[in-house]
Structure formats: C-alpha cells, structure tokens
Amino acid sequence: MSKEKAYEYKTINSRGATHHLVRFAGEEHWKHHKWDGPAIVPHSKDSEFVKSYFLNGIEYNSEEYSELMREREGLPWYKTSMGGAGENRN
User: Fold this and answer.
1) What is the pLDDT of residue 54?
2) Range of weakest confidence among 50-54, 56-60, 67-71, 80-84
3) In this structure, is residue 1 part of a structural domain?
4) Range(s) of the domain holding residue 20
C-alpha cells in the first residue's frame, strides 16, 4: 500500500524573491501558503515583489494575518502529554 501525502511543499527563488508554495492532495495547481510568516519574501528593496502573506492561496495584509495567527488555538488534545483520557482515568 502506498501512503499518499496530504500536501506537497516547495520553496522557489524567482525574480528577486523567495516563494513558498503548497499543493494539496487532489489539486492540480500550486498556491502561495505559509503559516509561519510571509509566503513571498523579497531578497532586496529593489525587488518587484513586496512581503506578502498568504494562506491557501488567499492574500492577507499584515494586520489580518497577525489576527488570524492570534486566534489559532494551542495543541490539539491528542498532542498533549495527558491525551484525551487525562481526566477520565480511574
């Protein structure tokens, strides 16, 4: 059995900027996406690109992006040290 990936990720340098791209399973096209910061990072001030924030191909300004990151919750229950049965143990 082959394990299919949920997504593919790649970083390319093009026309004076670094582009972070993702392609999810079942999709044909690559989209700009990066959770940790800007998806397009210019190498210099003379670049034709500006620092841009994208999630799943949707562009956000820096204030919207910061608000989205603040609204993210912490670790899911299955990644905590207690797990889902932490309070239910006998």
Assistant:
1) 96
2) 80-84
3) no
4) 7-72
Q: What rounded mean pLDDT belongs to the chain?
A: 85
- Closest by CA to 55, choosing from 45, 66, 47, is 66
Which pair of structure tokens corresponds to residue 77? Answer: 């229950």
The amino acid at residue 61 is: N
Total count of domains within the chain: 1
Amino acid found at 20: H
How would DSSP label each residue in the chain? -PPPPSEEEEEEEETTEEEEEEEETT--S-EE--SSS-SEEESSTTSS---BEEETTEEE-HHHHHHHHHH-----GGGSSS-TTTTT--
Q: Which are the contacts of 62, defined by CB distance < 8 A and separation ≥ 6?
A: 51, 53
Q: What's the predicted TM-score (pTM) here? A: 0.72
